[in-house]
Please model this.
Amino acid sequence: MTKTLAKTLTDTRPIRLKGRSFLAIVLSPELPFANWLERLDDLAARSTGFFLGRPIVLDVEGLDITQADLKELLGELGERGVRVMGIEGARGSIVGPNMPPLMKGGRPAGDIEPEPDPAPKAAEAATAGAANEPVKKAAPAIEVHSTRAVASIVIAEPVRSGQSIIFPEGDVTILGSVASGAEVVAGGSIHIYGTLRGRALAGSVGNASARIFCRKLEAELLAIDGLYKMPDDMDPKHRGQPVMVWLEGDTIKAERLA
Amino acid sequence: MAKVIVVTSGKGGVGKTTSTAALGAALAQRGEKTVVVDFDVGLRNLDLVMGAERRVVYDLINVVQGDAKLSQALIRDKRLETLFLLPASQTRDKDNLTAEGVERVIDELRKSFDWIICDSPAGIERGATLAMRHADTAVVVTNPEVSSVRDSDRIIGLLDAKTKKAENGERMEKHLLLTRYDPARAERGDMLKVDDVLEILSIPLLGIIPESMDVLRASNLGSPVTLADVSCAPAIAYRDAARRLAGEQVPMTIPGERRGFMNKLFGRRAA
Model:
């Protein structure tokens, strides 16, 4: 079966896997939910359509709830037109198969203040039928109080199995090893002053000039700008060596470092 | 000053419970008041290894939920009067452990013990994270094989992220206890060597426990190996590890290797 499939696959171009980050609104419900939903309704009444079509992440960190509670809450939110794209801070056991996926590794990006709805004005405009008068959109002001983007970070410890370092803004330098089952995702280049046993994904937001450097290559996966290489595709002579990896066209190249 | 130690590993069957009992007994033999706490709710074993399975009346869950006083649940060892056991419940599961309840119990134990040794369940779920949450020091039990080493690496990451110490911005002290080490098999390449494990995990070495029938025999007798046969190789290795935990400088012995090399290795790792 797989054999015939492999035969018909004439186009062998690799599939590109890319990272992209979006700004989502995080809702942190509080117990009791009924009370919190009431306050949410009040907010929604004051700025209609605030949640419409927006990606919402539900942060349930620290809430002592069961799967049934979460399901009910998601149902209540669904009725209000709030579409939850992911759940943060939940125990894996309370997220059911039909629920949005668990998300982690989120970074804060400032508070989002919903603007009071200019509904009366809009209604006025609508009744006047004034097409030339621009209707003020009920767009909430998204204030991002991020500090100016830093181009690189330094991780002074080994990256342990199961940890991910995600830094789309730029270069990542690690003063230690990256364990099997760990991953480093950087918008720019990745420098590892230790053994790379896990995954390294450089240029994750579309940067073909990003490179990966490591003291000792034992990687489970290497990727630059969405093109990736598995250990089986790597030249065995680079195993255990200090190596630099870069992209030339659509080919991942590697070279031993002196 | 009471010290809370979590004995953890991620992977099951590597010797957490055996090590908890052996280290607990070795510390108690030094005359310091020690309690071993079983966090493996639903799959308790520490009571068996301590030989106290028929003396359990109240357990950790009863104390966490306020149904029993701590003094009612603590079981004093029949061989050592400085050694106590706080057993887990066998009929409940880990969801019965609450963060506040565990904190209360640990705070209360701190008042009357020198050493509180928490035997973590396998895995990275609620039981394991609550067992490590209030620890001052972690003993990471690892076998010299790849799956155990990777699971230990994962646990070390959690110790640096999910514990009270980590949340307060402090560093959790972590020690590697390499168990079931067989020098002949390591030499043949069937097992990872001590150096390989240390290179991957990069935490200081607390001790190397040789693979031995004495450990299994002691468990089946319901006795920590450090009490069952004080002169067998694993008992000596555990006692040395306990002395290092207490801050003593004890030269490291790697089973099956010459002494000059052992000193060199220990000197380097201790730096």
Remarks:
- Strands of chain B lie at 3-8, 34-38, 75-76, 83-86, 115-119, 137-142, 173-181, 205-210.
- The first helix of chain B runs from residue 16 to 29.
